[in-house]
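Researcher: Next entry in the queue.
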Amino acid sequence: VHLTESGGGSAEAGGSLNLSCEVSGLPYSSFCLGWVRQATGMENEVVASVDSNHATKYAESVKGRFTISRDPNKDTLYLQMNNLKPDDTAMYYCAADSVPCPLLADEYNYWGQGTQVTVSS
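Model: Structure for this entry, 121 residues:
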């Protein structure tokens, strides 16, 4: 399984970033893809997830601001992040597992290497 993130970087509060994750080798016919973030001194948080039926879930902290999507033709997962806040600063990981989508970040079986997002006030 290979999960490769890109698109992180720096943004000012109120700005936008779009993360991508190339996915390959999943051993599941029904799967879940998620974005998990790890901020310094904080527990890992599942930001958003989408399953093989395109059903999505979001953390309360990002609802209305972040949008998760996947392009099955490109085997790519996306996270569009709008109206960014300094609290969104974290390392963002693409993660994968079978369905149902895990509720806890640490339950995901497969993780990418992560991409850093830094939001300044």
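Model: The two ends are 37 Å apart (CA to CA).
Researcher: Noted, moving on.
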